[in-house]
Amino acid sequence: MGVWFPDLRDRLSAGDTLDEAMLNAPEVLELWAEAMIESGQKLPPPRSLTELKTDSEVAQDLATFMVALIPFPAGLRQRAAERP
């Protein structure tokens, strides 16, 4: 099973079950964000579900598959904002 992040190209969370993939998803977000921060890149703002539905590259997938919101790891956006 897998969890796909439409705002993060080529980032997936996987598991033997959907529950396991969902439990692994925050770690994927955290690792991605830490790599962005460490390399001096800015974290892009997340798009809303409404915005994603208007994106022709992801709209069909959103209409076909289950949508789940994965919370962004606490403190990482603030840490990114504090970096010079």
Architecture blueprint of SSEs:
Blueprint lengths: L1 E3 L7 E3 L3 H21 L10 H5 L5 H6 L11 H7 L2
Antiparallel strand pairs: 1-2
Helix pairs in contact: 1-4
How many domains, in number, for the residues?
1
**In the CATH hierarchy, what is the class?**
Alpha Beta
| General shape | globular
Low-confidence runs: none
Strand content: 5-15%
Task: Classify the secondary structure makeup into a structural class.
Answer: mainly alpha
Main sheet specs: 2 strands, antiparallel
The portion of residues assigned to helices is 40-55%
CATH topology: Double Stranded RNA Binding Domain
| Amino- and carboxy-terminal Cα gap | 38 Å
What sequence of helices (H) and strands (E) makes up the elements? Answer: EEHHHH
Q: Tell me, rounded to a whole number, the average pLDDT.
A: 89
* CATH architecture annotation name: 2-Layer Sandwich
Rg, Cα atoms, Å: 14 Å
The number of helical segments is 4
Number of strands: 2
Could you explain how this protein is built, in words?
It is a single chain. This protein has one domain: Double Stranded RNA Binding Domain (2-Layer Sandwich). The protein has four helices and two strands. Strands 1-2 form a two-stranded antiparallel ribbon. A hairpin with a 7-residue loop joins strand 1 and strand 2. The radius of gyration is 14 Å and the shape is globular. It starts with a strand and ends with a helix. The mean pLDDT is about 90.
